[in-house]
Amino acid sequence: MSEPSKLLSQMNARSREVFRRVVEGYLDTGEPVGSRTLTRALTEKVSAATIRNVMQDLEFLGLLDSPHVSAGRIPTQLGLRMFVDGLLEVRELDSDDREKLDATAGRSASDVGGLLDEIGSALSGVTRGASLVLTPKHEAPLKHIDFVSLAPDRALVVIVFADGHVENRVFTPPPGMTPSAMREAANFINALTEGRTLSELRRVMEQEVARRRREIDSLAADLIAAGIAVWDKPDTRHERLIVRGRANLLDEAAEEELDRIRSLFDDLERKRDIAEFLELTEDGDGVRIFIGSENKLFSLSGSSLVVSPYMNADRKIIGAVGVIGPTRLNYGRIVPIVDYTAQLVGKLITDRSQR
Fold first, then answer.
1. Which of 11, 87, 97, 314 lies at a C-alpha separation of 20 to 30 Å from 206?
2. Cα Rg of the chain (Å, integer)
3. What is the separation of C-alpha 180 from the centre of its chain, rounded to a whole number of angstroms?
């Protein structure tokens, strides 16, 4: 049993209700909740002094904190975790929220990336937070690959998929790369390409390069390794992170929090630690909630993350959607929105792949 669960099981009915009312009041207003406010809200009629004693006990347990002398209490990170795990009442998805998300999904974006971009914007608008959408790699069979020299220290790899999808990425080729070595590398790869996905091609190509390295110009072999590794690194599982609604989070931040939140978005836009983003969701299906320092990517900003994976037709996790907000998020409303969005994205991607 986790520490929050143990604490919750040890609390009596009065302590539970005081704690729940403090957290709900804080999540609703963002302000500390005082004993006088609670005397009017509790089902059991008790004095303000009795409530203050209960709040002091909860503070001693590390569940509440008093930001100012003689002020009310707010929940700590441990308190929020206990509330989310044991006392949170998740609402049904609001019909207006569902309609807005469904309307976005019904638009005919030209590709999956465009569709997910629109859904990210809609999710941000519905939740009034910042949305994250981690897109899957394109895993259709390949048709053709080319290398194009842009400068002595820059080259472009162009990948054409059998379904007509085209992707380009700039990378740094090995020093001294010649046009003939580029042609040789492309010819070698294309002889192995047809009918294989990028990840399948990479495995076959590594075996062939190892077996036939003497037959291949050393620069061409290096380019083959570099060009495909840049595109399909084993530890790079997703091609794009879509972040929408940055202004929503900044608008609600207190002045002292602005720098921390800006730093978070800078990290996200540089895709730092994004490989860990999906791993956060893989311990089980459904929505997961990370509060403050429970996730190092969000710890410095003091933000919360509500995230859920989405799956393809084979029930394989291929991406994730999430909402970032202050720790006083309306979790009961946000959780069903994120859950529904993840299911919606999974269905849309599956439907597109079966056309």
1. 314
2. 26
3. 42
